[in-house]
Amino acid sequence: MARLCDTNLCSGCTACAAACPHDCITMVQDPEGFRRPKVDTVRCVECGLCAKVCPVLSAPDTHPIPDAFAARNKDNSVRELSTSGGVFTLLARHTLEQGGAVFGAAYDADFKVEHRMVETPEMLTTFRGAKYAQSDLGDTFRRVKEQLALGRKVLFSGTPCQVAGLRSYLGKEDPNLLLVDLVCHGVPSPAVWERYLAYKSEQISDGHRPITVNLRCKDSGWSTYSVDIRWPYGRNYLASNRQDPYIRAFVGDLCLRPSCHRCSCKGLTRCADITLGDYWGVWDQVPSMSDNKGTSIVLVHSEKALALWQELAPAMQTQQVDARRCMEQNPAALQSAKYDEENRSTFLHRYRDEDFSALVDELLPKPNAAGDLALRMAGKLKRLLKF
Ligand SMILES: Cc1cc2nc3c(=O)[nH]c(=O)nc-3n(C[C@H](O)[C@H](O)[C@H](O)COP(=O)(O)OP(=O)(O)OC[C@H]3O[C@@H](n4cnc5c(N)ncnc54)[C@H](O)[C@@H]3O)c2cc1C
Ligand code: SF4
Ligand code: SF4
Ligand code: SF4
Protein backbone atom coordinates (compact mmCIF):
# COMPACT_ATOMS: atom_id res chain seq x y z
CA MET A 1 0.00 0.00 0.00
CA ALA A 2 1.05 3.59 -0.66
CA ARG A 3 3.13 4.97 2.23
CA LEU A 4 2.54 8.66 2.70
CA CYS A 5 4.10 10.94 5.31
CA ASP A 6 3.07 11.19 8.99
CA THR A 7 -0.45 12.64 9.31
CA ASN A 8 0.71 15.45 11.60
CA LEU A 9 3.39 16.54 9.14
CA CYS A 10 1.18 16.35 6.03
CA SER A 11 0.53 19.85 4.74
CA GLY A 12 -2.24 18.77 2.36
CA CYS A 13 -0.21 19.98 -0.60
CA THR A 14 -1.94 17.55 -3.04
CA ALA A 15 1.31 16.48 -4.76
CA CYS A 16 0.58 12.80 -4.04
CA ALA A 17 -2.96 13.03 -5.42
CA ALA A 18 -1.78 14.84 -8.55
CA ALA A 19 1.00 12.30 -9.16
CA CYS A 20 -1.04 9.12 -8.81
CA PRO A 21 -1.38 7.68 -12.32
CA HIS A 22 -4.50 5.74 -11.34
CA ASP A 23 -6.29 8.57 -9.51
CA CYS A 24 -6.40 6.48 -6.33
CA ILE A 25 -5.90 9.49 -4.01
CA THR A 26 -8.63 11.96 -3.14
CA MET A 27 -8.33 14.88 -0.75
CA VAL A 28 -11.01 14.58 1.95
CA GLN A 29 -11.84 16.82 4.88
CA ASP A 30 -10.74 15.55 8.30
CA PRO A 31 -12.75 16.25 11.50
CA GLU A 32 -10.80 19.51 12.05
CA GLY A 33 -11.71 20.70 8.54
CA PHE A 34 -8.34 20.20 6.79
CA ARG A 35 -8.03 18.28 3.51
CA ARG A 36 -5.98 15.11 3.66
CA PRO A 37 -5.07 12.43 1.13
CA LYS A 38 -7.18 9.26 1.25
CA VAL A 39 -5.92 6.28 -0.72
CA ASP A 40 -8.24 3.83 -2.45
CA THR A 41 -6.31 0.75 -1.35
CA VAL A 42 -8.27 -1.53 -3.67
CA ARG A 43 -7.19 0.30 -6.80
CA CYS A 44 -3.67 1.21 -5.64
CA VAL A 45 -1.00 -0.75 -7.56
CA GLU A 46 1.78 0.20 -5.10
CA CYS A 47 3.90 1.98 -7.68
CA GLY A 48 5.24 4.36 -4.99
CA LEU A 49 4.93 7.52 -7.12
CA CYS A 50 2.88 9.31 -4.47
CA ALA A 51 5.58 8.84 -1.81
CA LYS A 52 8.27 9.87 -4.29
CA VAL A 53 6.75 13.32 -4.79
CA CYS A 54 5.80 13.98 -1.15
CA PRO A 55 7.88 17.04 -0.14
CA VAL A 56 7.78 16.00 3.50
CA LEU A 57 9.35 12.60 2.79
CA SER A 58 11.86 14.06 0.37
CA ALA A 59 12.34 17.84 0.47
CA PRO A 60 12.98 19.56 -2.88
CA ASP A 61 16.38 21.24 -3.39
CA THR A 62 16.66 24.79 -2.14
CA HIS A 63 18.49 27.80 -3.61
CA PRO A 64 21.44 29.44 -1.78
CA ILE A 65 20.96 32.28 0.78
CA PRO A 66 18.80 34.88 -1.02
CA ASP A 67 19.21 38.58 -1.67
CA ALA A 68 16.70 40.50 0.45
CA PHE A 69 14.91 43.77 -0.31
CA ALA A 70 12.49 46.19 1.26
CA ALA A 71 10.06 47.04 -1.56
CA ARG A 72 6.99 49.12 -2.32
CA ASN A 73 4.98 49.25 -5.52
CA LYS A 74 5.12 52.88 -6.77
CA ASP A 75 1.45 52.65 -7.72
CA ASN A 76 -0.22 53.57 -4.43
CA SER A 77 -3.66 52.52 -5.65
CA VAL A 78 -2.35 48.93 -5.98
CA ARG A 79 -0.45 49.08 -2.70
CA GLU A 80 -3.54 50.27 -0.84
CA LEU A 81 -5.48 47.14 -1.85
CA SER A 82 -2.56 44.72 -1.40
CA THR A 83 -1.55 43.01 1.81
CA SER A 84 1.94 44.43 2.07
CA GLY A 85 3.84 46.47 -0.51
CA GLY A 86 1.91 45.26 -3.57
CA VAL A 87 4.85 43.39 -5.10
CA PHE A 88 2.78 40.33 -6.03
CA THR A 89 0.75 42.35 -8.54
CA LEU A 90 3.92 43.47 -10.35
CA LEU A 91 5.17 39.89 -10.67
CA ALA A 92 1.77 38.65 -11.81
CA ARG A 93 1.26 41.44 -14.37
CA HIS A 94 4.66 40.71 -15.85
CA THR A 95 3.69 37.05 -16.34
CA LEU A 96 0.43 38.04 -18.03
CA GLU A 97 2.24 40.50 -20.32
CA GLN A 98 4.33 37.56 -21.53
CA GLY A 99 1.14 35.71 -22.46
CA GLY A 100 1.37 33.57 -19.33
CA ALA A 101 -1.01 32.29 -16.68
CA VAL A 102 -1.06 33.16 -12.98
CA PHE A 103 -2.22 30.79 -10.23
CA GLY A 104 -3.12 32.14 -6.80
CA ALA A 105 -5.65 32.03 -3.96
CA ALA A 106 -9.05 33.75 -4.31
CA TYR A 107 -12.44 33.71 -2.59
CA ASP A 108 -15.26 31.86 -4.34
CA ALA A 109 -18.85 33.17 -4.23
CA ASP A 110 -19.25 31.85 -0.65
CA PHE A 111 -15.88 33.23 0.50
CA LYS A 112 -14.28 29.82 0.64
CA VAL A 113 -10.62 30.04 -0.37
CA GLU A 114 -9.58 28.24 -3.53
CA HIS A 115 -6.69 28.30 -5.97
CA ARG A 116 -7.52 29.35 -9.50
CA MET A 117 -5.89 30.34 -12.78
CA VAL A 118 -6.10 33.91 -14.09
CA GLU A 119 -5.24 35.14 -17.58
CA THR A 120 -6.33 38.79 -17.55
CA PRO A 121 -5.06 41.77 -15.48
CA GLU A 122 -8.62 42.61 -14.34
CA MET A 123 -8.93 39.23 -12.61
CA LEU A 124 -5.66 39.68 -10.70
CA THR A 125 -7.54 41.70 -8.09
CA THR A 126 -9.12 38.45 -6.85
CA PHE A 127 -5.69 37.33 -5.63
CA ARG A 128 -4.96 40.55 -3.78
CA GLY A 129 -5.22 40.42 0.00
CA ALA A 130 -4.19 37.58 2.30
CA LYS A 131 -6.98 35.06 2.97
CA TYR A 132 -6.43 33.40 6.30
CA ALA A 133 -7.70 29.89 5.63
CA GLN A 134 -6.06 26.99 3.83
CA SER A 135 -6.93 27.21 0.16
CA ASP A 136 -8.46 24.34 -1.79
CA LEU A 137 -5.91 23.52 -4.48
CA GLY A 138 -8.26 21.18 -6.39
CA ASP A 139 -6.43 19.99 -9.53
CA THR A 140 -4.17 23.07 -9.70
CA PHE A 141 -0.92 21.10 -9.91
CA ARG A 142 -2.05 19.19 -12.99
CA ARG A 143 -3.27 22.42 -14.57
CA VAL A 144 0.10 24.08 -13.97
CA LYS A 145 1.78 21.12 -15.67
CA GLU A 146 -0.59 21.39 -18.63
CA GLN A 147 0.13 25.11 -19.07
CA LEU A 148 3.89 24.51 -18.94
CA ALA A 149 3.55 21.71 -21.48
CA LEU A 150 1.92 24.26 -23.81
CA GLY A 151 5.11 26.32 -23.52
CA ARG A 152 3.43 29.10 -21.54
CA LYS A 153 4.96 31.17 -18.76
CA VAL A 154 3.37 30.32 -15.41
CA LEU A 155 3.47 32.07 -12.05
CA PHE A 156 2.31 29.93 -9.15
CA SER A 157 1.87 31.66 -5.79
CA GLY A 158 0.98 29.96 -2.55
CA THR A 159 2.15 28.97 0.90
CA PRO A 160 5.68 27.52 1.09
CA CYS A 161 4.33 23.96 1.51
CA GLN A 162 2.15 24.35 -1.58
CA VAL A 163 5.14 25.62 -3.54
CA ALA A 164 7.31 22.74 -2.24
CA GLY A 165 4.56 20.28 -3.22
CA LEU A 166 4.31 21.68 -6.74
CA ARG A 167 8.08 21.70 -7.14
CA SER A 168 8.28 18.03 -6.09
CA TYR A 169 5.36 17.04 -8.29
CA LEU A 170 6.88 18.68 -11.38
CA GLY A 171 10.23 17.05 -10.65
CA LYS A 172 12.43 19.31 -12.72
CA GLU A 173 13.17 23.03 -13.02
CA ASP A 174 11.24 24.73 -15.80
CA PRO A 175 12.56 28.08 -17.09
CA ASN A 176 8.97 29.18 -17.76
CA LEU A 177 7.83 28.66 -14.16
CA LEU A 178 8.10 31.29 -11.44
CA LEU A 179 7.38 29.97 -7.94
CA VAL A 180 6.33 32.65 -5.44
CA ASP A 181 5.85 31.69 -1.81
CA LEU A 182 5.06 33.69 1.34
CA VAL A 183 6.43 34.22 4.77
CA CYS A 184 3.80 32.03 6.39
CA HIS A 185 2.54 31.99 9.96
CA GLY A 186 0.31 29.02 9.14
CA VAL A 187 -3.14 28.29 7.74
CA PRO A 188 -6.35 28.08 9.77
CA SER A 189 -8.91 25.36 9.13
CA PRO A 190 -11.39 26.17 6.33
CA ALA A 191 -14.16 24.85 8.62
CA VAL A 192 -13.28 27.42 11.31
CA TRP A 193 -13.27 30.18 8.68
CA GLU A 194 -16.71 29.08 7.47
CA ARG A 195 -18.08 29.02 11.02
CA TYR A 196 -16.66 32.48 11.83
CA LEU A 197 -18.19 34.01 8.71
CA ALA A 198 -21.58 32.42 9.46
CA TYR A 199 -21.34 33.64 13.08
CA LYS A 200 -20.57 37.23 12.05
CA SER A 201 -23.22 37.17 9.31
CA GLU A 202 -25.81 35.99 11.83
CA GLN A 203 -24.72 38.61 14.38
CA ILE A 204 -24.65 41.56 11.99
CA SER A 205 -26.83 40.79 8.99
CA ASP A 206 -29.48 38.16 9.89
CA GLY A 207 -27.40 35.47 8.19
CA HIS A 208 -27.06 37.20 4.79
CA ARG A 209 -24.00 36.32 2.76
CA PRO A 210 -21.30 39.05 2.83
CA ILE A 211 -20.60 41.14 -0.26
CA THR A 212 -16.93 41.83 0.48
CA VAL A 213 -14.39 40.51 2.97
CA ASN A 214 -11.03 42.17 3.64
CA LEU A 215 -8.92 40.69 6.42
CA ARG A 216 -6.12 43.20 5.81
CA CYS A 217 -7.91 46.54 5.56
CA LYS A 218 -5.33 49.34 5.80
CA ASP A 219 -7.66 52.24 6.62
CA SER A 220 -6.33 52.37 10.18
CA GLY A 221 -2.78 51.63 9.01
CA TRP A 222 -0.91 48.62 7.59
CA SER A 223 0.73 47.52 10.84
CA THR A 224 -2.53 48.04 12.72
CA TYR A 225 -4.73 46.46 10.04
CA SER A 226 -8.38 45.72 10.55
CA VAL A 227 -11.01 43.26 9.40
CA ASP A 228 -13.61 44.86 7.14
CA ILE A 229 -16.69 42.81 6.16
CA ARG A 230 -19.69 44.23 4.31
CA TRP A 231 -23.19 42.81 3.84
CA PRO A 232 -26.22 43.99 1.86
CA TYR A 233 -28.32 46.91 3.18
CA GLY A 234 -25.29 48.80 4.51
CA ARG A 235 -24.46 46.36 7.29
CA ASN A 236 -20.73 46.57 8.01
CA TYR A 237 -18.24 45.14 10.47
CA LEU A 238 -14.89 46.80 11.18
CA ALA A 239 -12.56 45.60 13.94
CA SER A 240 -8.86 45.89 14.52
CA ASN A 241 -6.72 42.78 14.19
CA ARG A 242 -6.24 42.81 17.95
CA GLN A 243 -10.00 42.74 18.63
CA ASP A 244 -11.37 40.54 15.90
CA PRO A 245 -11.84 37.00 17.27
CA TYR A 246 -10.89 35.28 14.00
CA ILE A 247 -7.55 37.07 13.65
CA ARG A 248 -6.91 36.47 17.35
CA ALA A 249 -7.62 32.74 16.92
CA PHE A 250 -5.31 32.67 13.87
CA VAL A 251 -2.43 34.60 15.40
CA GLY A 252 -3.01 32.88 18.77
CA ASP A 253 -2.49 29.48 17.07
CA LEU A 254 -5.89 28.01 18.03
CA CYS A 255 -6.87 26.64 14.64
CA LEU A 256 -3.77 26.05 12.47
CA ARG A 257 -3.11 22.88 10.53
CA PRO A 258 -1.03 20.46 12.66
CA SER A 259 1.82 20.63 10.10
CA CYS A 260 2.11 24.39 10.74
CA HIS A 261 3.43 23.59 14.21
CA ARG A 262 6.19 21.42 12.71
CA CYS A 263 6.63 23.08 9.35
CA SER A 264 9.32 21.70 7.06
CA CYS A 265 9.40 24.84 4.88
CA LYS A 266 10.76 27.45 7.28
CA GLY A 267 14.08 29.19 6.75
CA LEU A 268 15.81 31.64 4.46
CA THR A 269 16.75 29.08 1.81
CA ARG A 270 13.79 27.82 -0.17
CA CYS A 271 12.81 26.06 -3.37
CA ALA A 272 10.69 29.07 -4.38
CA ASP A 273 12.13 31.70 -6.74
CA ILE A 274 10.76 34.59 -4.69
CA THR A 275 9.38 34.92 -1.15
CA LEU A 276 7.02 37.76 -0.20
CA GLY A 277 6.12 38.96 3.28
CA ASP A 278 5.26 41.96 5.42
CA TYR A 279 8.35 43.89 6.40
CA TRP A 280 7.52 44.06 10.10
CA GLY A 281 10.21 46.22 11.70
CA VAL A 282 10.79 48.37 8.60
CA TRP A 283 10.14 51.40 10.84
CA ASP A 284 13.37 50.59 12.74
CA GLN A 285 15.49 49.13 9.96
CA VAL A 286 14.63 51.23 6.87
CA PRO A 287 12.64 54.24 8.17
CA SER A 288 12.75 55.92 4.74
CA MET A 289 10.56 53.08 3.38
CA SER A 290 8.09 53.15 6.27
CA ASP A 291 4.82 55.06 5.82
CA ASN A 292 2.39 52.57 7.43
CA LYS A 293 0.78 51.93 4.03
CA GLY A 294 2.57 48.63 3.44
CA THR A 295 6.16 47.61 2.80
CA SER A 296 7.08 44.17 1.49
CA ILE A 297 10.03 42.08 2.46
CA VAL A 298 11.19 40.22 -0.64
CA LEU A 299 13.64 37.32 -0.73
CA VAL A 300 15.03 36.75 -4.22
CA HIS A 301 16.29 33.17 -4.33
CA SER A 302 17.10 32.17 -7.91
CA GLU A 303 19.07 33.74 -10.77
CA LYS A 304 15.92 33.73 -12.87
CA ALA A 305 14.15 35.72 -10.15
CA LEU A 306 17.06 38.16 -9.77
CA ALA A 307 16.94 38.98 -13.49
CA LEU A 308 13.19 39.57 -13.24
CA TRP A 309 13.66 41.66 -10.09
CA GLN A 310 16.08 43.97 -11.90
CA GLU A 311 13.66 44.30 -14.81
CA LEU A 312 10.79 45.27 -12.50
CA ALA A 313 12.85 47.62 -10.28
CA PRO A 314 11.74 50.87 -12.01
CA ALA A 315 8.15 50.22 -10.90
CA MET A 316 9.18 49.99 -7.23
CA GLN A 317 11.00 51.74 -4.46
CA THR A 318 13.50 49.17 -3.20
CA GLN A 319 16.41 48.93 -0.85
CA GLN A 320 18.64 45.92 -0.35
CA VAL A 321 18.75 44.72 3.25
CA ASP A 322 20.42 41.96 5.22
CA ALA A 323 18.46 38.70 4.75
CA ARG A 324 18.78 37.55 8.38
CA ARG A 325 18.28 40.93 10.02
CA CYS A 326 15.13 41.81 8.08
CA MET A 327 13.36 38.78 9.60
CA GLU A 328 14.16 39.74 13.20
CA GLN A 329 10.59 40.94 13.82
CA ASN A 330 9.01 38.27 11.64
CA PRO A 331 9.50 34.94 13.43
CA ALA A 332 7.10 33.16 11.06
CA ALA A 333 9.81 33.15 8.39
CA LEU A 334 12.11 30.95 10.41
CA GLN A 335 10.11 29.21 13.18
CA SER A 336 6.96 27.12 13.30
CA ALA A 337 3.93 28.41 15.21
CA LYS A 338 3.82 27.50 18.91
CA TYR A 339 1.82 24.41 19.82
CA ASP A 340 -0.47 24.62 22.84
CA GLU A 341 -2.21 21.26 22.62
CA GLU A 342 -4.78 21.98 25.31
CA ASN A 343 -5.89 25.38 23.97
CA ARG A 344 -5.98 24.17 20.37
CA SER A 345 -7.99 21.06 21.07
CA THR A 346 -10.40 22.92 23.42
CA PHE A 347 -11.04 25.47 20.67
CA LEU A 348 -11.48 22.91 17.90
CA HIS A 349 -13.90 20.87 20.00
CA ARG A 350 -16.09 23.80 20.99
CA TYR A 351 -16.05 26.49 18.26
CA ARG A 352 -18.94 24.99 16.27
CA ASP A 353 -21.44 25.06 19.15
CA GLU A 354 -20.39 28.04 21.25
CA ASP A 355 -20.18 31.80 20.91
CA PHE A 356 -17.04 32.32 18.79
CA SER A 357 -15.89 35.54 20.48
CA ALA A 358 -16.53 34.31 24.01
CA LEU A 359 -14.56 31.14 23.37
CA VAL A 360 -11.57 33.09 22.03
CA ASP A 361 -11.81 35.44 25.04
CA GLU A 362 -11.75 32.43 27.35
CA LEU A 363 -8.66 30.89 25.73
CA LEU A 364 -6.49 33.90 24.88
CA PRO A 365 -5.37 37.02 26.80
CA LYS A 366 -7.79 39.96 26.42
CA PRO A 367 -6.79 42.74 23.97
CA ASN A 368 -6.41 46.36 24.99
CA ALA A 369 -9.81 48.01 24.36
CA ALA A 370 -8.64 51.64 24.67
CA GLY A 371 -5.98 51.18 21.98
CA ASP A 372 -8.55 49.58 19.71
CA LEU A 373 -11.01 52.44 20.09
CA ALA A 374 -8.32 54.89 18.97
CA LEU A 375 -7.60 52.73 15.91
CA ARG A 376 -11.25 52.48 14.95
CA MET A 377 -11.67 56.25 15.26
CA ALA A 378 -8.63 56.75 13.00
CA GLY A 379 -10.09 54.31 10.45
CA LYS A 380 -13.52 55.96 10.51
CA LEU A 381 -11.96 59.41 10.12
CA LYS A 382 -9.97 58.25 7.11
CA ARG A 383 -13.11 56.82 5.50
CA LEU A 384 -15.01 60.07 6.10
CA LEU A 385 -12.20 62.09 4.57
CA LYS A 386 -12.14 59.78 1.54
CA PHE A 387 -15.92 60.14 1.17
C1 LIG B 1 -2.05 32.33 5.43
C2 LIG B 1 -1.02 33.42 5.30
C3 LIG B 1 -0.14 33.66 6.36
C4 LIG B 1 0.84 34.66 6.24
N1 LIG B 1 1.69 34.89 7.28
C5 LIG B 1 2.61 35.87 7.19
C6 LIG B 1 3.50 36.16 8.28
O1 LIG B 1 3.42 35.54 9.34
N2 LIG B 1 4.44 37.14 8.11
C7 LIG B 1 4.54 37.83 6.94
O2 LIG B 1 5.41 38.70 6.83
N3 LIG B 1 3.72 37.59 5.89
C8 LIG B 1 2.75 36.64 6.00
N4 LIG B 1 1.92 36.37 4.93
C9 LIG B 1 2.20 37.04 3.64
C10 LIG B 1 1.73 38.47 3.51
O3 LIG B 1 0.59 38.68 4.30
C11 LIG B 1 1.38 38.85 2.07
O4 LIG B 1 0.52 37.91 1.52
C12 LIG B 1 2.58 38.95 1.19
O5 LIG B 1 3.47 39.86 1.77
C13 LIG B 1 2.22 39.40 -0.21
O6 LIG B 1 1.84 40.73 -0.17
P1 LIG B 1 1.58 41.61 -1.49
O7 LIG B 1 1.20 42.97 -1.03
O8 LIG B 1 2.75 41.50 -2.42
O9 LIG B 1 0.46 40.75 -2.18
P2 LIG B 1 -1.10 40.69 -2.41
O10 LIG B 1 -1.39 41.28 -3.74
O11 LIG B 1 -1.93 41.09 -1.27
O12 LIG B 1 -1.21 39.11 -2.66
C14 LIG B 1 -1.50 38.15 -1.75
C15 LIG B 1 -0.82 36.88 -2.22
O13 LIG B 1 -1.06 35.87 -1.27
C16 LIG B 1 -1.65 34.74 -1.89
N5 LIG B 1 -2.58 34.19 -0.92
C17 LIG B 1 -3.59 34.86 -0.29
N6 LIG B 1 -4.22 34.03 0.55
C18 LIG B 1 -3.64 32.82 0.42
C19 LIG B 1 -3.88 31.54 0.99
N7 LIG B 1 -4.85 31.34 1.88
N8 LIG B 1 -3.09 30.51 0.62
C20 LIG B 1 -2.11 30.68 -0.31
N9 LIG B 1 -1.82 31.87 -0.88
C21 LIG B 1 -2.59 32.92 -0.51
C22 LIG B 1 -2.32 35.25 -3.17
O14 LIG B 1 -2.42 34.24 -4.13
C23 LIG B 1 -1.33 36.35 -3.56
O15 LIG B 1 -0.24 35.76 -4.23
C24 LIG B 1 0.92 35.41 5.04
C25 LIG B 1 0.01 35.18 4.00
C26 LIG B 1 -0.95 34.19 4.11
C27 LIG B 1 -1.89 33.95 2.98
S1 SF4 C 1 1.29 3.80 -4.78
FE1 SF4 C 1 0.93 4.41 -6.93
S2 SF4 C 1 -1.13 3.69 -7.36
FE2 SF4 C 1 -0.91 3.62 -5.15
S3 SF4 C 1 -1.74 5.57 -4.47
FE3 SF4 C 1 0.46 5.84 -4.72
S4 SF4 C 1 0.70 6.62 -6.80
FE4 SF4 C 1 -1.34 5.76 -6.65
S1 SF4 D 1 2.33 14.85 -0.85
FE1 SF4 D 1 1.45 16.55 0.30
S2 SF4 D 1 -0.69 15.93 0.64
FE2 SF4 D 1 0.43 14.09 0.03
S3 SF4 D 1 1.08 13.17 1.97
FE3 SF4 D 1 2.78 14.46 1.31
S4 SF4 D 1 2.40 16.44 2.32
FE4 SF4 D 1 0.49 15.26 2.43
S1 SF4 E 1 3.25 27.10 8.22
FE1 SF4 E 1 4.24 25.60 6.89
S2 SF4 E 1 2.82 23.88 6.80
FE2 SF4 E 1 1.68 25.64 7.55
S3 SF4 E 1 0.75 26.52 5.72
FE3 SF4 E 1 2.67 27.62 6.12
S4 SF4 E 1 4.16 26.54 4.88
FE4 SF4 E 1 2.41 25.18 5.05
* Total beta-strand segments: 13
Rg, Å, rounded: 21 Å
Main beta sheet:
8 strands, mixed
Q: Which molecules are bound in this entry?
A: flavin-adenine dinucleotide, iron/sulfur cluster
Q: How much is the average pLDDT?
A: 95
Q: β content, as a range?
A: 15-25%
Range of helix content: 25-40%
Principal-axes geometry comes out as globular
Calculate the terminal CA-CA distance, rounded to whole Å.
Answer: 62 Å
Quaternary structure type? single chain
Order of helices and strands: HEEHEHHEEHEHEHEEEHEHEHEHHH
User: Count the helices. How many?
Assistant: 13
Strand order of the largest sheet: 5-4-6-7-11-12-3-13
Uncertain stretches of 5 or more adjacent residues: 383-387
Structural class: alpha+beta
Structure description:
The protein is of the alpha+beta class and 387 residues long. It is 31% helix and 19% strand. The chain has a domain at 190-254 and 354-386. It is built from 13 helices and 13 strands. Helix 8 runs parallel beside helix 12. It is globular and about 55 Å long. The chain binds flavin-adenine dinucleotide and iron/sulfur cluster (SF4) (3 copies). One iron/sulfur cluster (SF4) binds at residues 4-5, 10-16, 37, 54, 56, 165.
